[in-house]
Amino acid sequence: MISDVAQVTGALEDTSVALIVLNGSEQFCQPFFRFLADLRSSKATVPPLVILAGDSSEGFAISSLRAGAVEYLREPIELATLAQCISRFVPECTTQPKETALTGGEVLVGNSPVLQALRTQIRLVAASDCNVLITGETGTGKELVAQLIHRNSRRNKNPLVCFNCAAIPDTLLESELFGYERGAFTGAAAANQGKLMAANRGSVFFDEIGDMSPLAQAKVLRAIETKEVQRLGATRKHETDIRILAATHHNLDELASANTFRRDLYFRLNVGRIYLPPLRERKVDIAGLVDCMIVDLNKRLGRRVEGATSAIVRRLAQYDWPGNVRELKNVIERVFIMRESGRISEDDLSFVLPERKPPAASSLDEEIHSLRKALATCNGNKSKAAETLNCSRMTLYRKLAKCGLSKQDAAGI
Ligand SMILES: Nc1ncnc2c1ncn2[C@@H]1O[C@H](COP(=O)(O)OP(=O)(O)OP(=O)(O)O)[C@@H](O)[C@H]1O
């Protein structure tokens, strides 16, 4: 039985990664999870912890991640898969770039199948040197993914320069992107190399690329094609070696088809493609995200909040999160501010999370329509109608009651 944190951290001192094999149920392993959490919150340097478990339940995965594991693997596992996972955390035995934590400790949190696949995509794309288009709703983590791609690429010794295309007017665009010579215009007291040159041998992140004006699109395309930039007021051009990462919440395929976005630029950017699904489609990630946010806030604000109750996590999972992870982060921060210790509970949440809305009238109307249609097609036979609607007879009755359709109503359809 391990109980001494100091003894264990001593043993782990020169370890690149610790593989922990756990045989037993989630409940059985709880004392060990608590021990791991203590280990991680101690001041000692702890290597990445990878857990390999026989228990494949979601609860076990959440407990592992809450305890601070960087990876949770299920038995049985192919040796090659295990080796590949371990090698990501051991710099000297990997041929692939290591998935590093970002400056400020920011990492991609989530263990849903979508997020696991996303990590692989990021590694593959980062190892190539292609331009990448990152799409997804606002707040899904597009900028975070751009940072991860850059940090895991061979360009990571050079800067990642961010440029918000929606925030810069055309009048400033050229000087901001391409730079200027001293005296090029009134107020240009000193020369400026511009964002593209600042990103030389590194990457440029064009945020909100779908909002880039046609003029800017033309200029950027030219810079990509010629691999050269010319400062305002300069006579000579400078060669550049830049990788472009671009993000948008628009459907760029549609914009390009409608000629609102240049197709030639679209094809240049759309080489590597990463899509970030909204949080409502991967709610299993919420628990891990909340835990990481609390750990982060504890560090930043010097508090000792222990975590969130399971009830609050369930309540959070009932909400649709139109603002995605950013909105979740804001909600947790607002709740956290009112707490010094203990666990965040559902009561704390009632002040900050919008009430669940009843289904919109239109969706209710749609449901009534489809019920009536199914019953009419099946001459009022409820078993057959239930079959048509892909539900049980009992569910059909519940739906009829919810829509205010009596059995007689239904029979008369
Ligand atoms: N999987 C994740 N793990 C940890 N933090 C995340 C994750 N996804 C998003 N975040 C955090 O959520 C916030 C919003 O993310 P980000 O700014 O990358 O979103 P975005 O898609 O670029 O948004 P926008 O389109 O509005 O610019 C950031 O603080 C980011 O660190």
Automatic annotation (TrEMBL):
Can the keyword Cell inner membrane be found in this entry's annotation?
A: no
Q: Which residues form the signal peptide?
A: none
Pfam families under this entry?
AAA_lid_14, HTH_8, Sigma54_activat
SMART domains, A to Z: AAA
Domain Sigma-54 factor interaction spans what residues? 108-337
Alphabetical GO biological process terms: phosphorelay signal transduction system; regulation of DNA-templated transcription
The answer to whether UniProt assigns keyword Iron-sulfur to this entry is no
User: Where is the Response regulatory domain positioned along the sequence?
Assistant: 1-90
GO molecular function list: ATP binding; sequence-specific DNA binding
Keywords attached to this entry = ATP-binding, Nucleotide-binding, Transcription, Transcription regulation
Q: Which SUPFAM superfamilies match?
A: Homeodomain-like (SSF46689), P-loop containing nucleoside triphosphate hydrolases (SSF52540)
Please identify the protein, giving its name as recorded.
Sigma-54 dependent transcriptional regulator
